[in-house]
Amino acid sequence: MTSTIFLQQLINGVSLGSLYALVAIGYTMVYGILRLINFAHGDLLMVAAYTAIYGIAVFTLPWYVSFPLAVLFTGLTGILLDRAAYKPLRSAPRISLLISAIGASFLLENLALVVIGGVPKAFPRPEPFDRVVDLFGLRIQVLTIYTPIVTLVLLLALLYIVHRTKVGKAMRAASRDFETTRLMGINVDRIISVTFLLGSVLAAAGGIMWAMKYPQVNPFMGVFPGLKAFIAAVLGGIGNIMGAVIGGFLLGLGEILIVAAVPELAQFRDAFAFVLLVLVLLFRPTGIMGEPFTDKT
């Protein structure tokens, strides 16, 4: 592999890792507070992509209006998901929450299948994201450069909220102990809703950029990105925001560079993520930055 090809693939890997990281943060935030793997989280990518398409195609909104509205709508969908599928089961065994999460995922996918149909739709890629630029002698699509930048901006905004605001302090308290947090006068249900809102917003941003990168949308488009983001969260240490980001970048880089180095493995690209998950669970179950599991009520 020449240095030029390596640099090209490195940039592609960073861009893909950015998308995994955005979605993985939502997984890790919900798990950090509820100890719940929200399997419906990946389907929020699909919700954001379809909302953006209909905003542009049906309501003739410009992309810079449709995209933020899609992100907002997806955030509200995340809150509704919590209120309808998870809040009634707060006191139930965790297996009930897990089954509810799987059911919510199937519901979103099949609701889209019934309402919108299973025929894939082309996603309109706005002209500013469709341009190609010369960078260090490489021809790179602008979207590939914008994706890590958007991820960094959203990550910094999230870290500010988590570490510098009262809501963030309440989220960190709830992640340690529900009962003590309630005794301090904090509305835990509201904090959980805020967590779902923030995680869903990040997933929506990732979903829109994913749809621009692979411009074809269908009701099941969020399944594989969601699973890979979950693997990234486990790799980095589920429950740790920076761990999810690191895991996303490592997974994206690993996928791209392995295929670039050994093209014969291209058809096994998805399998790499699942093999990595097995290895992490075998040798370091807490992930790169994860803490030992402690139960809480």
Commentary on this structure:
There is one protein chain. By secondary structure, the protein is mainly α. It is 72% helix and 4% strand. The protein has helices at 3-34, 43-57, 63-86, 94-115, 127-130, 142-164, 166-176, 178-183, 188-213, 223-236, 241-261, 269-283, and strands at residues 121-122, 132-135, 138-141, 216-217. The strands form 2 sheets. It has a two-stranded antiparallel sheet. A hairpin with a 2-residue loop joins strand 2 and strand 3 (138-141). Helix 2 packs across helix 9 (188-213) and helix 10 packs parallel to helix 12 (269-283).
Give me some keywords for this one.
ABC transporter involved in vitamin B12 uptake, BtuC, two-stranded antiparallel ribbon, 297 residues, 4 strands, mainly alpha, two-stranded antiparallel sheet
What's the order of the H and E elements? Answer: HHHHEHEEHHHHEHHH
Provide the gyration radius in Å. Answer: 19 Å
Tally of distinct domains: 1
What structural class is derived from the secondary structure elements? mainly alpha
- Poorly predicted runs of 5 or more residues: none
Shape, per Cα inertia axes: globular
For this structure, the CATH topology is ABC transporter involved in vitamin B12 uptake, BtuC
- Strands of the widest sheet, in order across it, are 1-4
Q: Approximately how much helix is present in the residues?
A: over 70%
The CATH architecture is Orthogonal Bundle
The CATH class is identified as: Mainly Alpha
- Helix count, DSSP H or I runs of 4 or more residues: 12
Percent strand equals under 5%
What's the rounded overall pLDDT mean?
Answer: 90
Number of strands: 4
Q: Please describe the biggest sheet, giving its number of strands, its sense, and whether it closes into a barrel.
A: 2 strands, antiparallel
Distance between the termini: 53 Å
